[in-house]
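Entry 14. Structure prediction run on the chain below.
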Amino acid sequence: MPLALLALAVGAFGIGTTEFVIMGLLPQIAGDYGVSIPTAGLLVTGYALGVVIGAPLLTVLGGRVSRKRMLMLLMGLFVAGNLVSALAPTFEVMLAGRVVASLAHGSFFGIGSVVAAGLVAPDKKAGAIATMFTGLTVANIVGVPLGTFIGQAVGWRTTFAVVAALGVVGLAGIARLVPAVPRPESANLRREFTAFRNPQVLLAMAMTVLGFGGVFAAITYIAPMMTETAGYSEGAVTWLLVLFGVGMFLGNLLGGRFADRALMPLLYTTLGGLAVVLALFTLAAHDKFLSAVAVFLVGALGFATVPPLQKRVLDQAHGAPTLASAVNIGAFNLGNALAAWLGGLVIAAGLGYTAPNWVGALLAVTALALALWSAALERRTAKAGRVVAQAAPARTPVHH
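Output returned:
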């Protein structure tokens, strides 16, 4: 794999840290600002919605900029947002800082996916995308637990200041290692938008929303779930997040490896397994050991869907992948926003801190149904194409 993928992974590490570290710090932030846990959950929802909005908006606005320069500008925006969060005097300003940081997220991963895929041979694309996303998963093994520990020991503001510093490191890595990849001459905005006429692109994005949303329904409220229901101490949440990160890391690697071989069967397996684990998590959350196993499996199965879903969109949007790729990253975060909001609703309704697991299971089952529908449509289209080809009259040779 090219060294440039390391630079993309470093940027992904910083973004992954700020996206997920909020989970372990939710009780502290809620206490400092005097808001409820469901209200503090808006920091997750707001970030996710910022990704949804920023992904297509900044990708379109940056269409005339080289991909390397755009990646650098996005990292600068990310740094600014985290500094605002670190210094925020009120909850509303904190939320605004989260949204500013999130605007860079979708375009970074969307453009980064296209750059990563273009650096390797066609049969290595999913692996290259997975390598970039490794930064996101390693963030959950190192960055998020360390950020949670710093937040609990020194204060959550320090965590976001450190995350801003990570963004500066990512910016420097991109400037040094990523080659100057110009915007293709053949690319244009109208052509990019035509990708969304393909039903398979829209189905893949819907699978992304619902499948990854299942992960966030549970993980957004992992801190109160593990302390109030499973009986873990507040400090143990850090190690549970490490476990979640290890699951993400392994799932991402396996997803990248098998997506290049059997993409749709991989999605059936991971989405079905995720639905089962989330449903069982409702019961497992009452036992320390079983809840830890469930946290690991949710991370592994959830992130095993990322490379195949991103590759599915790139494959179906062939010829105009940049905007579709960025929008699909927004779709991951639309799922996060939807799941965090629904999880907050069921908690606020008095159904308990384990109730979001059921929400996640239902979302994952729906994503599996869409995957099966997508494959059926693909088979039907291929069959219709063969019938038309066979029905075409053979050309009669002309004799002179």
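The radius of gyration is 21 Å.
Filed with the rest of this week's runs.
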